[in-house]
Structure formats: C-alpha cells, structure tokens
Write a structure and sequence with these properties.
By secondary structure, the chain is of the alpha/beta class. It has four domains: 171 residues, P-loop containing nucleotide triphosphate hydrolases (Rossmann fold, 3-Layer(aba) Sandwich); 62 residues, Helicase, Ruva Protein, domain 3 (Orthogonal Bundle); 115 residues, Zinc Finger, Delta Prime, domain 3, CATH 1.20.272.10; 135 residues, GMP Synthetase, Chain A, domain 3 (2-Layer Sandwich). Helix content is 51%, strand content 8%. It is built from 25 helices and eight strands. Strands 2-3-4-1-5 form a five-stranded parallel beta sheet, with helices on one face. Strands 6-7-8 form a three-stranded mixed beta sheet. Helix 5 links the parallel strand 2 and strand 3. The longest helix is centred in the middle third of the chain and has 21 residues. The radius of gyration is 33 Å and the shape is extended.
Length: 543
C-alpha cells in the first residue's frame, strides 16, 4: 500500500479540526447555520495555513449527502465527502490557477457552470493560486461572478491577494488566514507523534515548530523527513545532521563571543558553523533570529510568550541578554539584515560576514541618547544643597513646615541661587523624570525669577527642545520637581531667545542631505554627547 505523507494523512476533516483559524471556521459555520452562504469566497494567506483545506471542508458541508441541507458538521463518510477529500468529486472542481490561467480556460468554466450538478446541491469551483490568472481571464470571470447561477459557488485561494483584481475582490467575501503560532504547531506535532507511536525529545518539537514559520504543512513535511531517517528517539541534533539547520549551541556560542567583545572567539565560532555546511546567509539569519530573542528578553522579560524557547533555553537567553543592551541588539539586527543582500550576491561572502562579526564584537555596547545624557549630567552631590535664602527658608535636609513663598525671597538672590545650582537641579530632574527630559531642559538657562514665575530661555537653535518640553504634560512635571527641589511654589515659563523664527507645527519639509546632516550635528543633545565623550563624528547614516 502506498505511503501517505503526514500532511495528507492528518489533514483537517471538519471545521472543528482546523488548527489556528478558529475565527474563520466559526464564521463559516454560522453562515451555514443561518443560510447566509455567499456565492464567492476569497481565502488569502501564506502557504500551508489551511486555505485549500478550509475550501474542501466548506464544500463537504454544503454537499454532504448524509444531511438533508447544508450542515456545519459533514459526515466525512458519504460518497460526496469521500470524493471531495480525494479531489475526485464531479461536482466539486478543483482548478490550479497557475496552469489554467488563460481566457480560454475561464470561458470553458463559464460554459460548464450553467449546467446543474450531477448529484449534489451545488457545483463548487475551487481555484487555487487564483492570482496567477491573466487580466483577460479575470475579466471573463466578472459577469458570472457577479450574477452566478443559484447552484454555483466559487472559492478562490491565493498567497498574493494584491495581484487579484479589485473588481474580483469586491465580488467575494474575503478571509485572511493568519500564520499559525509555533505553540499550536508544536501541539499538533506532538499529537501526531504520539499517535504514530514515535519517540521524540521536546526540544525537537519546539525547534520544528519554529522552522515551520507559521505553516502547518511545512512543519509536517519537515517531520516526515526526520521520521524517514529511521532514528529514534527524534532529537534536535537531527535537524543539523539531516536538515542542515544551524546548531543552536554553536549559534549561542557565537552570540556570546560577540556579547563578550571577543573577536577571535567569534571568528572561531563562525568558522565552525561554516565547516558544518552552513552558508554565510544562513549564519546571518541564525544570528538575527537569536538576537531577536535576546531583544525580546531585554524588552519583555524571559517569560514572554513572544519567544519560543524551552525553559533551559530561556535561562540561557536571559544570561546572554545581560551582555547586550537593546540599542546594541537593534543595531546588530539591522546591520546583519542589510548584509544579507550583499552576502547573496558576493563572491567574497565569507570575508564580508567575518568583517561584520568583528565589527559587532569589537564595538562597545551601544547607548541611546538618553543614556549618554544621563552619564554626562553630573550625579547629584551627596551633600545636601542649601540655597542662599533667609534663615527661615528650609533646606532639603529637613522637610519644610511651611512652603517658602516667592514674595519672601528676594528676586535677584533667588535667581542667582537657581543659576548657581542649575546643574544640580538638572540632575534631580534626570532622576525624577528621566535623562531625556533633563537633556531637553539642559538646553535652557534661568534668566528671570519674579512674582513666583521662573523664566527659562532656550537658545535660537533649541526651539524644538522648547516645544518638546511643553508637550505631553512635561512642563507640569518639570514644575512639580522644581517646586519640591526649591521648596517653594512657582510657575515655569519657557521662551526662545529673541530673533528665533517660529517653528511650524506641521512636519518639517525634507531638505538636502547636507542640510539634514548639519541639523543633526548642530542638535544640542548631539553636541552634549560629543562634548561629554570628547568624540568626533566620522559619519552619519541616513538609514
């Protein structure tokens, strides 16, 4: 007896069996129950997510001979159901759009559609990869699709809905099939392995589910290949040996070497992966995938459902994530992604990959502007600051019994005290509101303090920083911190030095590349970072 591959053997037979597409299955079931079945459907989604399977289930539901009318629970035993499963039913015609894409094929379909079904309730046309039809063929479909005979139903399936004419889509009910999550794929693979009585490791199932990339059929096809090796129990090591997948431990070692700034160890680890038969592109892809997991761990924690790892792998990823920060991981991922095209089209792919790995390994950990500004702002002195105020003015060492009012503080003396301690005030703002707010406020200077109003003036090039201080309720937060720091009630007023042109509220018009680079170089936050690090700008990446 001929062997039946797992993807066919375990194909879903009813709406309740469909994995990962519950909303669509439920909608179609309700349509059948209420008698609101449309004359044309368009199923879209990537390969192996259940489009054709759902089309066959819908066809069985409409034509099941065991029921007197369409049912949402086909028997799967009558002649009609069995024939539809085999693709041999005379009233359910499955057409491959890639090989029957011409106008003559569609004209023949229209000529045959007018005849009633031989034994079933409906004549159903399932056209797979419908986007492959020519424009003329699509146009030939329009009339019958808009006013079809009562006994005809159309079900179209495609992986590229953007290529289906809008006039066709408007005449169909469209359902978008989503990629199936690794957790659901893994659960299905385990159920099949248990039913087939094949021994396996949990690590293998998880790795296969990730390799399936959202496609149940791909996952079952990979599993078929592993079962064909005859090795039991099935282990994750077989993926490297028989499927050419990267060894997770070696990839982890490569990432650890990059995180430890050990260029020599990183080159050795990359060389081991190449000697195992992996291409440079595969290594870059493996690095991107692993660093993506580390990025999620840094942003959402090791317990996040956004990563598909075993408990042991989660602990290892959490440890490795400590070697990186999010900015560095984002930079590494984008760098490797940009490198992929060059690796595919270069005769010197290995040196390119090794150069990129050394670049990542030799780089210091990347810091975002907020973190740099927080390091450049002076840390608050352990000694409590006492402002030059009258004897009844309370210092920070003792909670004030009564707030100092602006009227009791001499204007000149109060302004001078704020000016002399301005950097310390910025440090407090950085601790309470974050280094980003402190960096914005650092572009201003106290210029006036009168009647309880503290005026902060921004330079002519810092109008944008002023607007950012005034947005999202930030000015109220700044006032609250200053009141607590100075021990008095006050209102903060922001202004730009005279001569500054008003900044438009709308988005700025893009200028030339040199103009954009000059704006970046002259940005106060960038200047602060450059001066604090005693650094030199060597280049600006527009990407």
């Amino acid at each position: 007896m001929a062997y039946t591959v797992l993807a066919r053997k375990y194909r879903s037979q009813t709406f309740d069996d469909v994995v990962g597409q519950d909303p669509i299955a439920q909608t179609l079931k309700n349509a059948i129950k209420t008698g609101r079945v449309a004359h044309a459907y368009l199923f879209t989604g990537t390969r192996g997510v259940g489009k054709t399977t759902m089309a066959r289930i819908l066809a069985k539901s409409l034509n099941c001979l065991a029921s007197k009318e369409p049912t949402d629970k086909p028997c799967c035993k009558c002649d009609s159901c069995v024939s539809i499963n085999l693709g041999e039913d005379i009233d359910v015609i499955e057409i491959d759009g890639a090989s029957n894409r011409g106008i003559d094929n569609i004209r023949e379909l229209r000529d045959n559609a007018i005849y009633r079904p031989a034994r079933s309730r409906f004549k159903i046309y399932i056209i797979d990869e419908v986007h492959m039809l020519t424009t003329e063929a699509f146009n030939a479909l329009l009339k019958i699709l808009e006013e079809p005979p009562s006994h005809v139903k159309f079900i179209f399936a495609t992986t590229e809905p953007n290529k289906v004419l809008p006039t066709i889509q408007s005449r169909c009910q469209r359902f978008d099939f989503r990629n199936i999550s690794p957790a659901l794929i893994g659960r299905q693979l385990k159920a099949i392995l248990d039913q087939e009585k094949i021994k396996y490791d949990d690590d293998l199932v998880l790795a296969l589910a990730k390799l399936a990339n959202g496609s149940m059929r791909d996952g079952l096809s990979l599993l078929d290949r592993l079962i064909s090796t005859g090795v039991q129990p099935l282990t994750a090591g077989l993926l490297e040996e028989y499927l050419g997948c990267p060894n997770s431990e070696k990839v982890c070692g490569l990432v650890a070497a990059i995180g430890g700034s050990d260029a020599a160890a990183a080159l050795v680890a990359a060389g081991e992966l190449m000697n195992a038969g992996l291409s440079e592109v595969q290594i870059a892809d493996a690095l991107v995938e692993y660093m993506r997991d580390l990025m999620v761990v840094k942003a959402a924690g090791a317990a996040s459902d956004l990563i598909t790892l075993t408990e042991q792998q989660r602990k290892r990823a959490e440890q490795l994530a400590e070697k990186f920060d999010i900015a560095g991981l984002v930079y590494s991922i984008t760098t490797l992604e940009k490198l992929r095209w060059s690796l595919k089209n270069s005769d010197t792919a290995r040196p390119l990959l090794e150069a990129a790995i050394i670049r990542l390994a030799m780089s210091e950990h990347f810091l975002n502007v907020d973190q740099l500004l927080s390091q450049l702002l002076p840390s608050q002195d352990k000694k409590k600051v006492t402002f030059n105020r009258p004897a009844n003015t309370v210092t920070e060492e003792q909670p004030p019994l009564a707030k100092q009012t602006p009227a009791n503080l001499p204007q000149a003396e109060g302004l001078e005290s704020i000016r002399s301690n301005w950097r310390d005030i910025l440090a407090t703002v950085g601790e309470r509101l974050g280094p980003g707010t402190a960096g914005l406020l650092g572009c201003a200077q106290p210029v006036r303090f009168e009647n309880g109003t503290l005026t902060l003036e921004f330079g002519e090039s810092s109008a944008v920083q002023k607007k950012m201080c005034e947005s999202n309720g930030r000015i109220g937060q700044i006032e609250s911190v200053l009141r607590e720091k100075l021990g008095m009630s006050l209102v903060v007023e922001l202004r730009v030095a005279e001569g500054q042109t008003k900044v438009a509220d709308g988005p700025a018009k893009p200028g030339t590349r040199s103009q954009r680079q000059n704006e970046i170089i002259n940005d106060p936050a960038v200047k602060t970072v450059i001066m604090g690090l005693d650094a030199t700008i060597t280049g600006i990446d527009d990407g």
